[in-house]
């Protein structure tokens, strides 16, 4: 329907905006889950070039019929991104990446497929570029799974949430940096009434050092306590200052 097309176009514009592309030259972008090429139309209008990947032959047929400007590739991104290193100046994806969380076949392992996607995407992107992936997560576990695999693959960055206070307009954009410590862009509509900003979720590679295999710090360890205190501070709660005694074991008889 035209409403879907309109929302899709808005999200494409926002994703390209979050890429922060240079204004003075055309770029080559990868569109993951390009479908019928609606995002591509916007990329072309902006004077950039693109290659679109999609798993659906029917959708790509529509893109061909529409005579989109980009090149099209029928492929499952869970098998990886089959392009040479550093080829793309950026990647966008609209409403596609969450599908990698589903195991459609017995042989499918979502963490492995996500890792394969992110690690090969990392390689295919030029140094200093970004990937902006708009997605509809089913729950917070999915978000955790997706961001954890992106971090494992070497990306930094985090989630930009537009209109976090609106049930309808709320949108998640995973904004990933390749070897660039960019600051995470601000989400739209994140100014609260009193001018306070809602803190965006950020992650860097630093946080992965103290994790056990499951990806969490060992419970009750010093790192676990410090992370918990930091979370509570971010929520604006009163938390005791960290000292050298934080997380220390007491002697059996105190």
Can you lay out the helices and strands and say which pair or pack?
Blueprint: H1 2-19, E1 28-32, H2 38-45, E2 49-54, H3 57-65, E3 71-74, E4 88-94, H4 110-124, E5 125-135, H5 140-152, E6 156-162, E7 171-177, E8 201-203, H6 222-234
Parallel strand pairs: 1-2, 1-4, 2-3, 4-5
Antiparallel strand pairs: 5-7, 6-7, 6-8
Largest sheet: 8 strands, mixed
Instruction: Give, in order, the helices and strands.
Output: HEHEHEEHEHEEEH
General shape: elongated
Q: What count of domains describes the coordinates?
A: 2
Classify the secondary structure makeup into a structural class.
alpha/beta
User: In the CATH hierarchy, what is the superfamily of the largest domain?
Assistant: Vaccinia Virus protein VP39
CATH topology call of the largest domain? Rossmann fold
What is the CA-CA span between the terminal residues? Answer: 69 Å
Radius of gyration equals 20 Å
Biased composition (Basic and acidic residues): 220-229, 236-245
GO molecular function, one term: rRNA (guanine) methyltransferase activity
Subunit structure: Heterodimer with TRMT112; this heterodimerization is necessary for the metabolic stability and activity of the catalytic subunit BUD23. Interacts with GRIP1.
Organism: Phaetusa simplex
Plain-language structure description:
It catalyses: a guanosine in 18S rRNA + S-adenosyl-L-methionine = an N(7)-methylguanosine in 18S rRNA + S-adenosyl-L-homocysteine. One of its GO terms (molecular function) is rRNA (guanine) methyltransferase activity. Keywords: Cytoplasm, Methyltransferase, Nucleus, S-adenosyl-L-methionine, Transferase. By secondary structure, the protein is of the alpha/beta class. The protein folds into 2 domains: 202 residues, Vaccinia Virus protein VP39 (Rossmann fold); 37 residues, no CATH class. Helix content is 30%, strand content 20%. It is built from 6 helices and 8 strands; from the N terminus they run αβαβαββαβαβββα. Strands 3-2-1-4-5-7-6-8 form an 8-stranded mixed beta sheet, with helices on both faces. Strand 4, helix 4 and strand 5 form a beta-alpha-beta unit. Helix 1 crosses helix 2 and helix 4 packs across helix 5. The longest helix is centred in the N-terminal third of the chain and has 18 residues. The chain is elongated. The N and C termini lie far apart (69 Å).
